[in-house]
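User: Modeling request: complex.
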Amino acid sequence: MLNISDLTKKFDEKVAVDDVSLQIKPGEIFSLIGPNSSGKTTIVKTIAGLLHPDAGVVTVGGNDVVAKPLETKSVIGYIPDEPVVWGGMTGEEFLHFVGALYGLSESLRTKKVAELLPVFSLQGLEKEYFENYSRGNKQKFTILAALLHEPKLLLIDEPIVGLDPESAAIAKTQFTQFAKQGGAVLLVTHTLSVAEDIATRIGVLKEGKLLSTGTLSELRKKANAGSTATLEEIYAVLTHA
Amino acid sequence: MFFLLFQYAARSFKRFFVKNRAAKIITVFGFFVVFAFLVTVVYFGFRAGFQYIGKDLFFGDALFLYIVELFLLVSFILVVASALISGMFALFQGGDSPPLLASPRYQWKPVLVFLRMFLSSLWPLLAIILPALFAIGNVYGLPLAGFILSIISVVLVIALGVMWAMATLFIIAWVLYFLGRRSARFLTFRNFTEVVALSFLLQLFLVWGRVTTVDLVKFFQARVLDVATPDLSPFLEQFSVLPTHFSAMTIYLSRTGDLGTAFSYPLYFVPVVLSGALALYLLGKHHLILWELFQEHAAPIVGRAFSVSRLGSFLLRCSRGSSGAIVGKETIAFMRNSRGLLWLGFILLIWFLQLGASRILSHGLGTERVSGDMIPSFVGTFQFAVIIYFVSMFVLRFAFPSFSSERKTSWIVGSAPVSLGVVFISKLRFFTLLFSALTVAFALLSVFVAGFSSFLAFLFVLVIVLATFVLTTYGLSLGAIFPNFESDDPEVLSTTLPGLGFIFGALGYGAFGAYALGLLWRGGSFVPLALFVTLSFLAVFVLVRLAQQSLSRAEF
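Assistant: Request completed. Predicted assembly structure:
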């Protein structure tokens, strides 16, 4: 579903992403972990079409994100790390707006909104303004907006920041179900327990380079850690090597 | 605390030049060029005006006083209106208030708000008053002491304007507080905004009634009297109760050389200002209670009061594609932005004042009125230039920062399957429709005030609509070609280098249009207007292409 080959992205002279390659198949949840400024968000934004790659090729469903941006964007659902939306817009209006951008008809949008609001028990809150929502509720609406058009690839940047434990569990279930139904997920997070819980494969990123990828057990071997080593222990070994 | 704040301001100023230093130095330089240009225009404008008035030995004195009274009054109204808008947010909204209000020095908040609003109101007015006083000195001769006295009186007027606005805000807030039995029940921003707006319009209505009932016709019939100078009492009676009268008299008496009496006016006024300061202190002493209660209604501000905001919601819900959705979103973002709306109201207020002044001048002089029949080219050209100026202000404040101010929300449209070219055209549609509606309304009012013929009126409105479209395209394109992601405050973005470039271009374009239109009205050639129209369409084509190219390379 997602194929990244030799991706490089620079900001002036600073190399943010350095020759990164990875693939995510349908049904997979791939988690990118790494310290601050390691290039995780830059990779996600490049796939989402918010940044242009300096080198390398990124394809989504076989379409190049640079050559065919509209085709690739139409199958991606993007959840940003900062859920900032116009403060004077209600949650319901936001969902309608995003749905319309993805070409959903009014009747379909109305139906989907009614279906999605109960996922996070947001019924009754949808007519409030975004500026009145807590960070967690803003995050929940952006998750719903990403699921609205039934994407094939979910790009998730820090999925559970601001969510209460119950909502975080619901979000994790949603992502897992999405993958089970054939969707591909790229999950970028600092919360290692989330990656450990739901990722089928994990990539460790540092200073723009992809140090290692694999399943949890494969990473344990690469880090020469024991069979019960947590991802936090593996991460410490791999990023300080 | 004040020293710390001063240090913070100085550091912020230094930090401003850390990134994009060259562009920012050019911006500051450009700002001073614009400023110097404005000061020069004001100086020569006033000088020409006073020279003209001075030729009339009989009415010269009286007209001078009348103009100074009107000018100071309009300035006072603008200071009050501006301070009401800024003060509402600075005194009672969250923003940067919590750290100070959570500290033991919370009672200083109203003082800081006063200082900030006073200083920000002071320099634009002085930028006009100083060259005006120099022009008075050049034409009539103004002693240094008179010059200083005049400046002091104007500074007192500005202080009074800010105090008046703050006192109005506090009184209304306290009334709402006590009406709600010391609770937050009525202390919502919506109630507050509506009552403040109503109170301001009521004050304006009272002042308007007093100013426009000056019997100019009767006054000008004084020509038949066998006296050396006209009787000033009709003016003095009308203006004596206005808060700006003392300053007008100080300037008038300084000009005539009666410095002793001129000195007495501000001297009498100092106790008034001090009493006002004491009243303001008492009203603002417990400001924290009001601020806390305002926070209980977490921010559904003005938007809900306007049915047009429901139009945005309707457009969003019913949109069949991305273009309609973006127009709906723009409508919502515009109509539910209370600060933006209040500034829109402020600019409209200035525009109405200008129209009112035109009406007083053209109709207040009875049989001697300046009518469209007498000098249509002058009136039409002037009104055209005024409308272009106000459209430019709207474009600069709303359309130009449209892309840059959406930095944090750009992920929504940026990650969606929508070409940014479509986004640009949708924004252009929205702003062109909005500004055209305003300009057509004002163009028709101008036509009514000036009394144009049908053909002139038709041509006038047509050219105005074209110019609005061009200026909107110009502002939006510049904002798209030179996005600035250092700030999302439209007021800050408007003062960047591309913003200054917009002002220069817009003023030049407006001047060319006014010249072409005036020439045609005076029976001259049609060629300049044809060239103006051709260049307008060419500019739109080039700007849209450049903006779309730039957006296709944009990163968020």
